[in-house]
Amino acid sequence: MKNVKIIATGQYTPDNIVTNFDLEKIVETSDEWIESRTGISKRRISDGEDTSQLAFKAGKNALDKNSILPEDIDLIIVATCSPDYHVPSTACVVQGLLGAHNAVAFDITAACSGLIYGMKIAKQFMMEERYKKALVIGSEVLSRIIDWKDRNTCVLFGDGASAVVLEQTDENIGIKDIDIYSDGAAGMALTCKTRPLRNLCVESDEELDHIQMSGSDIFRFGVKVIAKNVKDVLERNNLTINDIKYIVPHQANTRIIETAARKLKVSSDKFYTNLSEYGNTSAASIGIALNEMMEKNLIQRGDKFIMVGFGGGLSWGYALVEY
Ligand code: ACO
């Protein structure tokens, strides 16, 4: 059985920056409240570009930086909960824009766990000879599904996209352990409905829905997922935390990450965070963090790191990677 390694990462975030001070002008909030409760000071918000465009630019960034030809990509998976089309899939739009005409392309929905879900699915595909290289993208224009009058949610999120290119390898490196989980029974803690049901049988004056969540439930869930999954993956692979260079968590809230670090009795320096710059970009967040780390040379050949995601569904997952 072949291994699967990460050969490239990429990202794209809109240029337009919205600070906490900008939000003070539209809802009753303050920079101090947002910064102290979440760690977020600004986020990128699309001024016109859509999820498929962000996804395309993140994918292209990963391919171009590493001189990978689009026609060599066999599989494109886009994770998003804010697609611009119901049909076609965001992944098919990206395939067309990239000219990746040999790929099969489809979307998945796993909210903030999307990139890890995508990597898991890609790895399973890549057990077959046909799928030698896969492009996994997390892309969100969450600003489309946020209620900009709701201070409980609008301060938390940002728009962005990230990409990871995976390749089959005979080397004993790459994704060493990866798994994903769901708990649909708890799913109502974080929701966003699609269009209201209105048809020849149903008359409805239901408004378009926006992201809603139970902040404290998600907070507790996030802490538990990070702490449990890091502990479990270390045990299962006979590793200690000292064998791990970095933990790359979903970027939802600095306090979630710090509380999980305390539970694990690990310095929060072990966790890479960039929440301050981007807020929570859902499926894109772990990949944006990873790409930044690669660009800063924080990860070298042979280093091990753990990616851990959690989000709507509820869904969660982790990946142990040796680079
Ligand atoms: N500005 C000012 N006050 C606010 C704001 C705001 N933007 N938002 C809420 N408040 C108020 C609340 O109304 C409440 O006021 P009240 O006591 O008069 O009712 C008060 O602040 C305290 O609210 P809490 O919910 O107790 O604040 P908390 O410290 O729990 O922080 C937060 C809220 C930041 C949402 C926190 O619960 C959290 O981070 N939860 C995790 C959720 C998350 O990160 N979701 C992201 C998406 S989900 C995902 O990525 C999986």
Characteristic key phrases:
323 residues; binds acetyl coenzyme *A; Peroxisomal Thiolase, Chain A, domain 1; 5-stranded mixed sheet; globular; Beta-ketoacyl-[acyl-carrier-protein] synthase III; 2 domains; EC 2.3.1.180; alpha/beta; 4-stranded mixed sheet; FabH; multifunctional enzyme; 13 strands; 3-oxoacyl-[acyl-carrier-protein] synthase activity
Structure notes:
The protein is α/β, with parallel strands linked by helices. Helix content is 31%, strand content 24%. The chain has two domains: 3-171, Peroxisomal Thiolase, Chain A, domain 1; 176-322, Peroxisomal Thiolase, Chain A, domain 1, CATH 3.40.47. It is built from ten helices and 13 strands. The strands form four sheets. It has a five-stranded mixed sheet, with helices on both faces. β4 (75-79), α4 and β5 (104-108) form a beta-alpha-beta unit. The two termini are 19 Å apart.
> Count of DSSP E strands?
13
Q: Numbering strands along the chain, what is their spatial order in the largest sheet?
A: 1-7-6-4-5
> Helical proportion?
25-40%
How far the N terminus sits from the C terminus, by CA atoms, comes to 19 Å
Gyration radius, in Å: 19 Å
Parts with pLDDT < 50 across at least 5 consecutive residues: none
CATH-level-4 superfamily name of the largest domain: Thiolase/Chalcone synthase
| CATH class category name of the largest domain | Alpha Beta
Number of helical stretches of at least 4 residues:
10
Strand-residue proportion: 15-25%
How would you sum up the global shape?
globular
Sheet of most strands: 5 strands, mixed
Briefly note the CATH topology name of the largest domain: Peroxisomal Thiolase, Chain A, domain 1
Structural class: alpha/beta
**What molecules are bound to this protein?**
acetyl coenzyme *A
**Number of folding domains?**
2
Sequence of secondary-structure elements: EEHHEHEHEHEHEEEEHEHHHEE
| Mean of all residue-level pLDDT scores | 97
CATH architecture term of the largest domain: 3-Layer(aba) Sandwich
